[in-house]
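Suppose you are handed only these lines of text.
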Amino acid sequence: MFLPGGPGVLGALCLCAVFNTVDSGMLFPQESSSREVKELNGLWDFRADKSPNRNQGFERAWYKSRLAETGPVIDMPVPASYNDITQDPSLRDFTGWVWYEREVVVPARWVADEGTRVVLRVGSAHYYSIVWVNGVKVTEHEGGHLPFEAEIGSLIRKDPTTPCRITIAVNNTLTLKTLPPGTIQYMSDRTKYPDGFFVQNIYFDFFNYAGIHRPVLLYTTPKAYVDDITVVTDFLDNTGLVKYTVSVQGATTATLKVTLMDKDRHCVASSSDQSGVLKVVDVKLWWPYLMHENPGYLYSLEVRQSDERSTQDVYTLPVGIRTVNVTSTQFLINNKPFYFHGVNKHEDSDIRGKGLDWPLIVKDFNLMKWLGANSFRTSHYPYAEEILQMCDRHGIVVIDECPGVGIKDIRSFGNASLTHHLAVMDELVRRDKNHPSVVMWSVANEPAAEMPPAEYYFKTLIKHTKGLDPTRPVTYITDSNYARDKGAPYVDVICVNSYFSWYHDPGHLEVIPIQLNTQFENWYGKYHKPIIQSEYGADAVPGLHSDPPMMFTEEYQNVVLQKYHDVFDQKRKQYVIGELIWNFADFMTAQGITRVVGNKKGVFTRQRQPKAAAFILKERYWRLANETGILPPWTKYPCSQRTFTYAHTLFL
Ligand code: BDP
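From them, the structure of the protein bound to beta-D-glucopyranuronic acid can be written out as follows.
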């Protein structure tokens, strides 16, 4: 593991770290009559450790006193990436440890009541984090896109008169064994590079934003509490089936009351067992957006846990009742064919980088609905839980991807990498298993799956994921290199990315029909599994025009889309079950000669304004929705194109 100039604190820590244990639940924090939540978002003190070996913070134990006492600090918003917050290029491009600190006044009753668990939770921090409370280490976590937490009650009770000082050190270094992988390269030629010069190499196409990306909060539970709930749903005719398991911690015996309520809070089924099957008569199924007039229907599963005297803990889980199945040519939701007409996204925006931002989230959902998109893939890492909750409520279908992107070096197929990859899948499934919107797991994007160790690697990874969740299909995303199919025998759905007339035969739009046709025939011919075109597209600099079309103009992007669409229209009658545009919006990347301030394949700009391609896609997606789904009556096609466009504008 890296630390420039030294053996590396990160390396030493990794050896002794308790990695990502998943023997407890990771329920989304929520307020209830037994639980309180205190958000710690806002300004934190911040310092990047710019010492040559990035190790000064540990050598001088910055966690032992207030950060402002050990050196200068700046304001840093949480959640946000730190990279684009200042005017300092060395912070934008920083690699190594950064330090965050915040003092919190904990409510006196939390401290006084020994029966209250106080949990510190970080929604995500990129990439490796160590957390101290009042100078005492409480947890560490590897991985940038998933939550971690620690019980800190006993620590804050040690000295109730002092505020609770939370210090979080975060290191964004990527190595061959991290997910995503990367390498640190030292440049030792002193005629070319200054002393200590190194670069972080990455093998993926988005900026390695870093920092505390999702909310940090304190929440309470009683000593005996609902630790986890797992729900699997099915239906038979008009009866919904909700198979559930509740796990309780902190009590040897627990009395439970499990109540399933409809949207009007009427009880539709209940039980007092720790696990069982609830039957829902006249079930309202969870349907995707544009597949039903009432998409995203959610019941609430209220779990009350009590002892002989009183209710101890209450937790309520949203539950959508739906099934997912795959045949050799179809993707079925509630036994009806579902066609993915959607987008690939990134968590990415101006200034915030990958920091969670509610205005952006809501804007993006409005844009997806405007576009008529019914789905997206969380390319190339797990997105915030808040986003998945929106998907549940709006009926937007999700392919949930882990951060296995850029696995290109043979050394990243070793045992240590595989063990970590399995652990990340454990954490991802633990977090997202109950979301009805999540219909498939993606274990990697464009790995070098032609390499000899890839077959064992993906066989193990996919089997493991199916073992964690037998109810959802599993895929990995391949590119158009057919040799990269070593994992394909184990997936349920083939997902292919291709960039004909862009990376291959640039400028030759006329090759798209034949090459795309060949792509589909080859994959289907060999594997007889349904196929999703999981990426396709072209860069377009907004406002750049040419006719006849040239690369990087809006016209060229339009034609690429149209030519792909023509082939999709033939193949979707056979075994192509979806199309996801690359990309929903322009996004930031590392600097390089093929990127003009980021990747410009968005149909929206980074500021979420439409390029011409957005209108082409909108027209198509509404047309597809009309053919394959159920739209509210006034949006029905055929009617004149003008009425149709006008009607669905009204509908939105
Ligand atoms: C694909 C990658 C994606 C890139 C895209 C591109 O999966 O991350 O951003 O290419 O080059 O191969 O635009």
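What can we learn from it? The pocket of beta-D-glucopyranuronic acid is lined by residues 204-205, 380, 445-446, 479, 497, 535, 582, 599, 601 (CB under 6 Å). Residues 43 and 497 are 40 Å apart (CA to CA).
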